[in-house]
Amino acid sequence: MDKTKLAEFIGIMLGDGSIYSKNGTHRMVVTGHCEEDYDYLINYVKPLIKELFNLNPSIWKHKNKNAIVIAAHSKVVIGDLINLGLVSGPKTMKIPKFIKTKTEYIAKFIRGIGDTDFSVMFKKKYHAYPVISGSFSNKEFTERIKELLKNFDIKANLNSRCVHGFMIYELNIYGRWNLHKWVQYIGFSNPKHLTKIAIWKKIGYYEPHTPYKKRLELLKQKTYKSS
User: Model pTM?
Assistant: First the structure.
């Protein structure tokens, strides 16, 4: 098994995934936005699961939620993932030991987390200042991600806030140079992020809340007209 790709998959699972192993049911699930994450889940995550585990995931859209779900079933695979440190049921944000043994594993693991649990935004005047931001409920896990980013000389600011009685820990990565280093050393696999960055590079700014399909159209145009 390709451990580099496994590291990325574990990042995906700790971001938007979960596993369940109980009463004869052994299932992995990855959930995303039905528009923003559709291409990523169908064209990247699904083939990744097939390559790593030789499983063919099922796909469906939540009836009452704007979400798409990929799921695969295997007692052996789920057992292997639990042995690596993933937990059945509510997620315990534990990073498997093997990921820290090589920089390439760390990079791919963070890519999986970044593709699922981080946002790419462009703020300040003219929406030209890049910010990569991720929010987590586990303080220790957030601190570990911050430390792992130092392997790539990426500086992240950690802030906390209370939302509806629960503490949220937020990593914010500011500026062009940090974005450049993320793209160079870690990268993104999710077109949700890649399209925003591509538009920003093309015209120097990115207008917030531009729908994913609209972004694809804009990137096909030779010239760009602001809405």
Answer: 0.92
Cβ–Cβ < 8 Å for 226, 205: no
Per DSSP, the residues of 52-97 read HH----EEEE-SSSSEEEEEEE-HHHHHHHHHHT--BSS------G
pLDDT in tens, 166-203: 889 999 999 999 999 999 999 999 999 999 999 999 99
Residues 6+ apart with CB under 8 A from 45: 12, 30, 70
Q: Spell out the domains of the chain, with CATH numbers in brackets.
A: 3-91 (3.10.28.10), 116-220 (3.10.28.10)
pLDDT tens-place string over residues 109-118: 999 999 999 9
Q: Which residues are CB-neighbours of 177 under 8 A, at least 6 positions away?
A: none
Beta strands in the chain (DSSP E): 17-22, 25-33, 58-61, 67-73, 118-123, 129-136, 157-163, 166-174
Show the tokens assigned to 79: 């057992």
pLDDT at residue 223, rounded to an integer: 65
**Total Cβ atoms within 10 A of residue 42:** 15
